Amino acid sequence: MKSLIINQYSTMHALMSGVFDGMFAIAEISQGGSFGIGCSHALAGEMIALDDTFFEIQGAGNVRRFSEYDQLPFAQLTYFNPSEQFPVSDISKKDLYSELSAQVNIDNIFAAVKIEGIFKKVWLRRTNYQKKPYKTFIEAIVEQSEETLHNVSGVLVGFWTPDIFHGISVAGFHIHFIDDERKNGGHVFDFELKNGLLSYEPKQNIKIHLPENSEYINADLTVDDLDNAIRKAEG
Ligand SMILES: [Zn+2]
């Protein structure tokens, strides 16, 4: 299916302020796309959706496939039909902007991005299961698992968000990784790509689906210094 829409489930305000209960079933969000990222109920892990499969990479590093009944607190999904793909080598996260900008002006629009390749290094984190009462996201990630993978082959999946939409989403590149064996991965802080294939699709629409449950409806979504909280949490 071709679509220029990014479907976003819940808001950064909700995630940052600690609305971690799963509110959107995989069966529902898979209607919004087969490609994307998110997080598990109670932050038990990171989600990466690729080729119609929704993977959960749990805090300790175990990977499993989500069932259609699993509920997620936050996700961004789209259908990925790359407009362009080209080989890249020896780049890290900071080079992604210039690589993409050389192809298309992304300053004012979103984009879905994918890199398949061999990585010298991928620096990851996975959030860990949170008990109620939930803390804020910034407090919860004190318990996150960090890991650096070396000489690994796999795929990066994620989104580019222009600065003007920081707060709606995470400005810059928000990307998740899963290895070719589907045995490891997580939210990506940074990477060093040896060589691979970068594909992208500009996205001109974002649709935000708000949860219907009382936890969201009644939540106080005021976050102190949201901009910095997001950069600290998802950068
Ligand atoms: Zn993430």
From TrEMBL:
Annotated metabolic or biological route of this protein: Polyol metabolism; (R,R)-butane-2,3-diol biosynthesis; (R,R)-butane-2,3-diol from pyruvate: step 2/3
A GO MF label: acetolactate decarboxylase activity
GO biological process annotation, one example: acetoin biosynthetic process
SUPFAM superfamilies assigned: AF0104/ALDC/Ptd012-like (SSF117856)
Catalytic activity reported: (2S)-2-acetolactate + H(+) = (R)-acetoin + CO2
UniProt keywords, alphabetically: Acetoin biosynthesis, Decarboxylase, Lyase
EC number: 4.1.1.5
Pfam families named in the record: AAL_decarboxy
Broad enzyme group: lyase
The family this protein is said to belong to: Belongs to the alpha-acetolactate decarboxylase family.
UniProt-listed PANTHER family: ALPHA-ACETOLACTATE DECARBOXYLASE (PTHR35524)
Record protein name field: Alpha-acetolactate decarboxylase
Gene: alsD
